[in-house]
Amino acid sequence: MTNLKSTNPKSIAVLGAGAWGSGLASIAEANGHRVSIWSRNGSYTLAEVVENADMIVSAISTKGVREVATQLQGLAIPPKAVFVTATKGLEPETISTPSQIWQETFPSHAVVVLSGPNLSKEIQLGLPAATVVASRSKDAAELVQLVFSSSRFRVYTNSDPLGVELGGTLKNVIAIASGVCDGLQLGTNAKAALVTRGLTEMVRIGNFWGAKTETFYGLSGLGDLLATCNSPLSRNYQVGYQMACGKTLTEILAHLEGTAEGVNTCQVLMQQAKQRNISIPITEQVYRLLQGEVTPRQALDELMLREIKPEYSY
Ligand SMILES: NC(=O)C1=CN([C@@H]2O[C@H](COP(=O)(O)OP(=O)(O)OC[C@H]3O[C@@H](n4cnc5c(N)ncnc54)[C@H](OP(=O)(O)O)[C@@H]3O)[C@@H](O)[C@H]2O)C=CC1
Ligand SMILES: O=C(CO)COP(=O)(O)O
């Protein structure tokens, strides 16, 4: 069996002290690495945490990524530092993924995407989980794999960073739909149909942007889809569930613990789908529900009564 406790501790700067930033910091710390955490209200400055960092791990919500990346641009980042992004969203103005923002801001540094079925509350409890680290740089991905692998966290490498990142991002919209499905008590058959067709929709969007189909059938796609569509711990699932129980989006977001990225992702996807004529019927109904244009029951009827068609169009 591999001994994963590090004999070569690295300096890890974690940006974002939310649920996932704290979770990732604990995993690296337990593996013997030197971890310092930055957040807007924390006691360290950005310059202090990134000084001498071997790895800069961002678990900032999408809305803050560019702002923090730009602040870092003015600081002395060690040339060999590897950026790791764990954010699952899309920037509305540019449709960039978080890793694209990091790579654009730091073109000569390696960027690694970390994404998988990783509900942070379960990880905090020490329950076992697996994830994926993906990069164009094999060496960087393997370094990140080594830093985070433990007896409770199994880390796989992957060479399709876009597919890995989009899996974690796109499933959030389907998780909202799954929450609606459970809130309306539509049963197991309906849930299976929703998640399976949701995966088809994820593959369609992902392929359009250049991600590989097979990546969506791995941990960062199907794996994360199953976790978030079946767990009340998922904030995105909670948004859908509570809407099905009659709450408004504003009421839900006011009391939600943490970020539900699917709400913004859904808007970005709808804009793109309209402009480029991509068929994303589930996302479209989630969008209309979030906009207050349909009730959960109307959204269900719209999906069930779409024009009949083959399962796959060749
Ligand atoms: N929780 C989970 O189970 C998982 C979450 N993720 C993803 O990780 C990301 C963060 O999620 P999570 O930790 O749960 O969310 P939280 O809401 O708990 O934390 C959000 C973090 O983002 C920071 N942030 C938000 N806006 C800004 C900004 N403008 N500038 C700087 N920092 C900002 C917050 O900073 P501050 O602390 O200063 O308020 C906080 O650290 C999301 O993209 C999510 O999808 C991925 C896997 C698992
Ligand atoms: O991405 C997650 C688990 O992998 C967390 O999901 P939520 O953001 O919906 O809580």
From TrEMBL:
Keywords: Cytoplasm, Lipid biosynthesis, Lipid metabolism, NAD, NADP, Nucleotide-binding, Oxidoreductase, Phospholipid biosynthesis, Phospholipid metabolism
Enzyme Commission no: 1.1.1.94
Keyword NADP in record: yes
Domain Glycerol-3-phosphate dehydrogenase NAD-dependent C-terminal: 160-300
UniProt-listed InterPro entries: 6-PGluconate_DH-like_C_sf (IPR008927), 6PGD_dom2 (IPR013328), G3P_DH_NAD-dep (IPR006168), G3P_DH_NAD-dep_C (IPR006109), G3P_DH_NAD-dep_N (IPR011128), NAD(P)-bd_dom_sf (IPR036291)
UniProt-recorded Gene Ontology molecular function terms: glycerol-3-phosphate dehydrogenase [NAD(P)+] activity
Binding residues for NADPH: 20, 40, 44, 88, 120, 235, 261
Residues annotated as domain Glycerol-3-phosphate dehydrogenase NAD-dependent N-terminal: 11-41, 46-140
Compartment(s) of residence: Cytoplasm
Superkingdom field: Bacteria
Residue positions of the active site: 171
Residues the record lists as binding sn-glycerol 3-phosphate: 88, 116, 171, 224, 234-236
NCBIfam families on file: PRK00094.1-2, PRK00094.1-4, PRK14619.1
Family from the record: Belongs to the NAD-dependent glycerol-3-phosphate dehydrogenase family.
Protein function: Catalyzes the reduction of the glycolytic intermediate dihydroxyacetone phosphate (DHAP) to sn-glycerol 3-phosphate (G3P), the key precursor for phospholipid synthesis.
Protein name in UniProt: Glycerol-3-phosphate dehydrogenase [NAD(P)+]
